[in-house]
Amino acid sequence: xxxDDAVETFYTDERWQNWLDRLEEEDLDPxxxxxxxxxxxxxxxxxxxxxxxxxxxxxxxxxxxxxxxEIRTVRDIVLADVExxxxxxxxxxxxxxxxxVPVFYAAEEYVVGGVVEGDVSEFVHAAADAEANDDLDAAxxxxxxxGTRIIDGEALDIDLVxxxxxxxxxxxxxxxxxxxxxxxxPEVVEEEG
Length: 193
Fold this sequence. Notes:
Blueprint: H1 13-25, H2 33-58, H3 64-78, H4 87-113, H5 120-132, H6 136-151, H7 158-163, H8 168-184
Helix pairs in contact: 2-3, 2-4, 2-8, 3-4, 4-6, 4-8, 5-6, 5-8, 6-8
C-alpha cells in the first residue's frame, strides 16, 4: 500500500457544497436564531477541518508541508466564489468566508512559524487600531498573530469581541472564536444539524 492509498481527507468540495445546498434551500434571516445557527455551523465546520489538520500534524500523521497543503486546500474550497441567485445569501456566506480568512492564515503561520509572543487581547486591540487607521493588512496580521496564540491554547475573551466596532476586525475575531470552539470541541458539525 502506498502513502496515497492511506491519505487522510480533512475537507472536501462535496462537504462544502452540501452546506451551500442546504443554505440555498433555507429561507435565511440572520436575525432568526436557526439561520444564524446554520451559518455558524458552516463556519465552525470549516474551522474544525483546520483544527483536525493541526491535530494530525501534532500526532505526526502528517508533516509540516502536508499540513500547509491541507490548510490551503480547505481555504481554497471555502473561499471560492459562491454563485447563488439570492444576493442576500451570497452576502451572508461572504461574511462567513471573511470570518474564516484569519483561521486559515493563523493555522498556516502556526505550522510554518510557530506561536508569536504576545497576548490575544493585545493583538486584537492592535488590529482594531490598525483598522481605524485603514491599515487592513496590519489589522489582519495582528488577528492572525492572535490566532496562533489561540491555537497554542490561550483563550479569546468573548467580552473583547463585544467591545469591537463592527468591521473587518470584528468579523475576523468572530472567525477566531470559531477556531477556539473547534479546538475546545473538535467534533464534526452535522450537516443535517
